[in-house]
Description:
By secondary structure, the protein is of the alpha/beta class. It folds into three domains: 3-207, Rossmann fold (3-Layer(aba) Sandwich); 217-299, N-(1-d-carboxylethyl)-l-norvaline Dehydrogenase, domain 2 (Orthogonal Bundle), CATH 1.10.1040.10; 302-433, Rossmann fold (3-Layer(aba) Sandwich). Helices cover 38% and strands 12% of the residues. It has helices spanning 3-11, 26-35, 47-54, 65-73, 108-117, 137-148, 186-196, 209-239, 244-251, 275-284, 291-301, 303-317, 345-355, 387-391, 407-413, and strands spanning 17-20, 40-43, 77-79, 90-93, 125-129, 157-161, 179-183, 203-205, 326-330, 359-363, 395-398, 417-419, 431-433. The strands form two sheets. Strands 3-2-1-4-5-6-7-8 form an eight-stranded mixed sheet, with helices on both faces. A five-stranded parallel sheet has the order 10-9-11-12-13, with helices on one face. β5 (125-129), α6 (137-148) and β6 form a beta-alpha-beta unit. α12 (303-317) packs across α13. The longest helix has 31 residues, at 209-239.
Amino acid sequence: MTLDALKASIRQHQSPVAVIGLGYVGLPLLIRLSAVGFPTIGIDTDPAKVESLHQGRSYLSTVGDGAVARALKQGMRCSSDAAAVSEAQVIILCVPTPLGAHREPDLSYVRQTIATIIPHLSRDILLILESTTYPGTTEEELVPPLLAAGFSPGKDIAVIYAPEREDPGSRHPANLIPKVLGGITATCSALGCAFYEQLVERVVPVSSPRAAEMTKLLENIHRAVNIGLVNEMKVVADAMGIDIHEVIAAAASKPFGFTPYYPGPGLGGHCIPIDPFYLTWKAKEYGVHTRFIELAGEINHAMPAYVVSKLRDALNARGQAVKDSRILILGLAYKKNVDDTRESPALAIIDQLLQLGAKISYHDPYVKRCPQTRRWNFDIPACALSAETLASQDAVLLVTDHDQLDYALIAREAALIIDTRGRYPADQPGIVRA
């Protein structure tokens, strides 16, 4: 087969597709590929995930068991053995790209995956990186080992970067979210377009993988900077006795020149808290200091401490210290209506409260167990949301405003509510905005 023949096979949905990394990005993508008729192979190093999928059970709240069952009927297979990529003509990497201990990019998962699969790759295939990363990663981390193995990008293997645009819990249909991509060569880009045209209504090719990588960073840094701005405005407005949510609603009435962003307890998720550091790290290689981006990061990073200070002040006003106070955290997920706790500000808040001696419990309808992470290793009990539980707390801290929470019950039974999401009116008795 040639790359031209591969393009024809892709358009006929005959090319087997392997998705490596079956997390919040990889698993939904695998399900969609099966749904449109591609033969699919899901690969993950976690055998528990593979076994769960083989049994028709999803481990993500954003993917139902029914979708997994349908994909299995359509022929989806899963494996924890990297050698399974030998059957694929299209291979998509959806592996983690976290930050290291000093907030430097950690590309170990990308490097390990490439090193592991290269011995099993065939000629005339399409290799795609979807993981969020800094400009230059595709050319610096994927191409050299492929060249060393005897491949020639653009001739016997197509290599592209096509950043994921997943939004867990979003109502945006996946096929209506345009796909940005950049290939190592024009041939690579053309093949990438042929592939993603089978999944989305619009493909947006750019001049290079570096441009596609920068596009993804711009999208998320745009949000991080604007959230940093509105978080700082929240602090200023609070000091002046002004309701920032009232101000945002009024400003949003302008039909041009303003886009509403909303304050909160800090940033969470895999992308927005991490991507700015990927760019600032890479920019230093070019002698550029990204001051504006870094300032927004500092503001957002300080929000959990701001929330804790508001809680401490509210308790002090009632003659209580944080130490030995019973505090119920509402929501561990980083955003509402999902089970994703990656980089959640709730974990930073809990850590600070535990250091102050508080007695912490939590309720989250999507998160049944407190996650153990590389940064935080504590275990706090989950509890049901009941009148008795609420009445027994010295304070209730609303971190994640899931729609499933009974807000009337919370307001009726809680003695003190620290509201980080603006869910309650600012002048309601017992409510403190944070």
